[in-house]
Fold:
Amino acid sequence: MVLDIHYIPQRSYSEQNANLPRHLPIVGLGCSSFSSFFSSEEGNDELTVDTVSREHPAVIRWVETIRHAVLHRGINLLDTAPWYGHGVSETVVGYALDTILCDDEGYRYDKVQKRKRTGSLDRSELIINTKVGRYEADPLKQFDFSYETTINSVQRSLERLNCDYIDVLQLHDPEFAPSISILLNETIPALLECKRRGWTRALGLTGYPLEVQQEILVKAEREFGRNVFDQSLVYCHNNLHDNSLFSEFCFASRGSPTDTFAGFCQHSNIHLMAAAPLSMGLLTHSGPPNWHPAPLELKEACVEASKICQSEGVDVSSLAIIYSLSHPSIGCTLLGMKDEEEVDVAADLASRFSAVDFNNGSQDSILDQVLTPKERQVLDKLLDKTHGPFSQLKEDYRWDGRKEATNFWALVDDLKREPCNNQS
Structure:
């Protein structure tokens, strides 16, 4: 069966790297929404990886959302992680895949107790990505970058997803690793072993601080004598308030003393994907969750941006999504969509790009093609470098990812010193 992609455009992605898909949907389905991870609705908060079942009303709704995204809107990239719902997201995605994919011969991963599939799509028609490194809610058990845990995590992910391989296996939030050395000596060798065993087609990494990703990419190539990673997934760096992926010249690169992170990846043959075009809730009318790490100045600027949009009858979230999708260098942008309505909103916005030639045109010219005159006018107001809501932000246009990691490990140290954690 050929996947119907009538509703959502696909973009050329990797013709030079055979490990990666040649084409990606312009929007990918971020699967953290299929758990109580970022929001807890009534009846969802009791779901754990041990209690989740196909019969739960929330699970039924999530499975139908995934089916709708894949089968009716052509969103054929699913991005999940053990961290999302601490196993719930991967399990729910697996339930959905059981109804989407057909049974295939040559199922390579023989340790999986294979569940029967009832769908009609071939596995090759979907792109399924997951991650390693971040796991449990308990801070004392949240991160584990050891070789053994990494291998075991991938085995567990394959079982939950009921798949024999992952398309891109990603190192998750490596800025929280106790040291670069543990990544070089344990995590990355485990990832390479997973690739050798055929459990993944490609390797990637994802985290917030771009400078940490760049450091890992450089040191891994130096350590192993070649590019280890095929892909970098960045988040919250390609949106209305933070365009540092393309604008900050702070990375050493081949043939150039300094470069942007996007330029560094291009010169290193590492392909980019982006996530969180709404900046984890900042660019919405309802605002971010309480735990959001953004500085107060940025939160206030985003509220002002939302008010400008409301006064002009433009939806700030729709404008933010279109802006992120419009960059020629980003093949796919991941977006969380918790129900069929949100899938349709995202797919309808993506469909505006159906006639766009991303190989010929700047981001500005692409935006001129897909925005209404009113939306273009409002976007110009938001991006105005003199009077726009983000114009007065200096370092406050983003948050400090390294500091977040430092604070986390300080919390872990405090917990370890508590008497109840010192008892055998």
About this structure: Confidence is low (pLDDT under 50) at residues 1-5.
